[in-house]
Structures are given as structure tokens and as C-alpha cells.
Write a structure and sequence with these properties.
It is a single chain. The protein is α+β, with helices and mostly antiparallel strands. Among the domains are: 139 residues, 2-Layer Sandwich (Gyrase A, domain 2); 78 residues, Aminomethyltransferase beta-barrel domains (Elongation Factor Tu (Ef-tu), domain 3), CATH 2.40.30.110. 19% of the residues lie in helices and 33% in strands. The protein contains eight helices and 19 strands. Strands 10-11-12-9-3-13 form a six-stranded mixed β-sheet, sandwiched between helices. The longest helix has 12 residues.
Length: 370
């Protein structure tokens, strides 16, 4: 099991540690509910150094990225980021990822920790086709970087103390390279996986501890806390964000996962023709959000039924909001049963709990009062 550069810090803080994606990661410190509320109301810092980073470089970097991802990277300008997917030739999802454009010959691809080796192998098979040499023009730099996610409505205000360039005016899905906390060449982006606002900080691994300490010190007066992966999951689920291994996997297409908006058929990409055929035929299932009307929690793999007791799907993720106490989740159901407002049943052990299909997100952060 691998460690991040910050593992010893998490252990010293008394975090409950557990294996995740091959890493020893902090799951919680003071408790998932407490940490969740801290991010929604103030700010918290996550160690997400387990995530993967690939560089695509050179004159053919953009054509290469265009081919291996389904979104249109050509619309990006310098300093812009984009959500996208890698696809297999059969149209199923290899992984979801972020694409960062530094300039026309330099792109950063940020992938999920559990899929680093798989993603790099899947993308590398197309490198030579575009004149990129694996290890030179297409580089797996995952071990070179640590990443912190500082999330919450006070995050950018607190982090402004650590750099001269303006942060609070940064637009969503943009990034800057800057000197941050006295550390050169930090990449600061505003993508986020909580819906609470904030930033991500990419730094060379040997500077991770210094960055963590600076972030914690800068956030002290704002109520910053270290946050584990448990709250990261409840926060992303409140927003209806997909998680690979739950809503997304290599048996899922972006069309059925509600990701048609990042699937641009105006360009060529791996799996395009298969997806066009699937789109024409109509998807057989669809990812939906739901709220429970009965008391209980819907967990992954619980079965979903229609009101007349026909099995129509399964739960991919479910939880209870620490803030609203609402019980909700996401799952796949037959496409004909996926309309918003439809009454459904979730089988929880030997009971069938009443639920209703709704459109995520399940929470509107702007309504939360500090």
C-alpha cells in the first residue's frame, strides 16, 4: 500500500486511515458529519495527492488529447480546464478526468488514483499515432506531484494570504501557475469536487509538507479543518457528482451516465462511432437521482423497484446529508422509468422504502448561511 507525502501528518492528527485506490488515506478526523459541515460553512483541506497527473507535450499534444478524450479540448484557451472522459473503443468509460491547457503544446490530464496505470496504458497506445513518445512527450508524472484541495466558501479568501495574485475573482474551471506560500510553480485551479467553492493546489511532492503547513496556518482564523475522504464522498454526492467505481465504470457509457454534455460528436475521438450508434438506438438505462420519503439509507448495489414491484435498476451511491438530514442517492434505472417525479421503491434488506426520482443537485450551497 502506498503513502502520500502527507501520510505521517494525517496519522499524527489522529485520522482514521484506510486503504483507498492502493493508498493509505485519511477517511475522517473529527467525524464525517462535522467535516462535511465545516466545508459547507467555512473551509477544509483534503489531501488528494493520490490522484494521477499526465503531461501531453509538443505540437501534436492537442490532436492527441482530442483523440483520446470525448470533450472538445480545442475550445480551451490558456489557463482553462475542462471535464472529460477517456473511452474504450466500445464506447465504455475508461475514466473521467480533467484537462488543463497551459499553452498549445502543453496539456495536463488529471485522472483518478485507482485508474492511473490503466489510463496511462489506454492513452499510450495512441501516442505513436500522433508522433508522441511515451515517457518524453506523454509522461506519467503522478509520483512527482502532491495535491491539496482547499474547499469551502471561505477557501479563496483564506488562501489569498499566501499569494500576491488575485484569487477570489478567478472563474470556475480556470487555473494559474504562481508562487504560493513562497513555493514556486504551484498550480492553483478552481475546479472542485464539493460544490462549496475553493481551489486545488498542485505542488512538487517534496514541497507537500511545507504547503500543508502554510495552508493550515493561513486558514486558522477562518476555522479550517483537515477533511477526510468520507466527507469528500458525502459532499460530492450532495451535488450529484459522479464517482468512478460507482456511477462510472468500464461497463458504462457517457450517454447513460448523463454525460452527453461532454460528449462532442463534432470531432473524432475513440469510441465515437459506437456511441453514435447507441445514441441512435436509444440508451436502455439512465442515471437518476432520488430522495427517500421513508426513513432509511440507500446503499450502493441496493435494488430499485417500480411501484408495481418490478425490478428496474440499482443504487450506485447513497447517503444522508449531515446538513439537511435528507436521505438521497443516485442509481441506474430503465430509461422508460427515469422521468423526474416518478415514484420508486428502494429495497433495503427486507423492506421496500418509498422514494422519488429528482434532478440533482440535492443541495444548493448558496442557500447555506455562515
Amino acid at each position: 500500500m502506498q503513502a502520500t507525502p502527507l501520510t505521517s501528518i494525517h496519522e499524527s492528527l489522529g485520522a482514521r486511515m484506510a486503504p483507498f485506490a492502493g493508498y493509505n488515506m485519511p477517511i475522517e478526523y473529527t467525524g464525517i458529519s462535522d467535516e462535511h459541515i465545516c466545508v459547507r460553512r467555512k473551509l477544509g483541506v483534503f489531501d488528494v495527492s493520490h490522484m494521477g497527473e499526465f503531461w501531453a507535450l509538443g505540437k501534436q499534444a492537442l490532436p492527441f488529447v482530442q483523440h483520446i478524450t470525448c470533450n472538445d479540448a480545442a475550445v480551451l484557451t490558456n489557463g482553462k480546464a475542462q471535464y472529460s472522459c477517456f473511452l474504450h473503443k466500445n464506447g465504455y468509460i475508461v475514466d473521467d478526468l480533467l484537462v488543463y491547457r497551459f499553452n498549445e503544446e502543453k496539456y495536463l490530464l488529471v485522472v483518478n488514483a485507482a485508474n492511473i496505470d490503466k489510463d496511462f496504458a489506454a492513452a499510450s497506445q495512441y501516442a505513436a499515432q500522433f508522433g508522441l513518445t511515451v515517457g518524453v512527450d506523454f509522461v506519467n508524472a503522478s509520483n512527482d506531484y502532491a495535491q491539496l484541495a482547499v474547499q469551502g466558501p471561505l477557501a479563496l479568501q483564506a488562501m489569498q494570504k499566501l499569494c500576491a495574485e488575485p484569487l477570489e475573482s478567478m472563474e470556475y474551471y480556470t487555473f494559474k501557475e504562481l508562487t504560493f506560500a513562497g513555493i514556486e510553480d504551484v498550480i492553483l485551479s478552481t475546479t472542485g469536487y464539493t460544490g462549496a467553492g475553493g481551489c486545488e493546489l498542485y505542488v512538487r511532492s517534496d514541497k507537500a509538507v511545507a504547503l500543508w503547513n502554510a495552508v493550515m496556518e493561513a486558514g486558522k482564523d477562518f476555522g479550517i479543518q483537515p477533511i477526510g475522504l468520507g466527507a469528500r464522498d458525502t459532499l460530492r454526492l450532495e451535488m450529484g457528482y459522479c464517482l468512478y467505481g460507482h456511477e462510472l465504470n468500464d461497463q458504462t457509457t457517457p450517454l447513460e451516465a448523463g454525460l452527453s454534455w461532454i460528449t462532442k460528436f463534432s470531432k473524432d475521438f475513440v469510441g465515437k462511432e459506437v456511441l453514435l450508434a447507441r445514441k441512435a438506438a436509444g440508451t436502455q438505462r439512465k442515471l437518476v437521482g432520488f430522495v427517500l420519503n421513508d426513513r432509511g439509507v440507500a446503499r450502493a448495489e441496493y435494488e430499485i423497484y417500480s411501484e408495481n414491484m418490478q425490478k428496474i435498476g440499482f443504487v450506485t451511491s447513497g447517503t444522508v446529508s449531515p446538513l439537511t438530514k435528507m436521505s438521497f442517492g443516485m442509481g441506474y434505472v430503465q430509461a422508460l422509468c427515469a422521468n423526474v417525479g416518478r415514484k420508486i421503491l428502494i429495497k433495503v434488506r427486507d423492506k421496500y422504502l418509498a422514494a422519488e426520482i429528482v434532478k440533482p443537485p440535492f443541495y444548493a450551497p448558496q442557500k447555506e448561511k455562515n
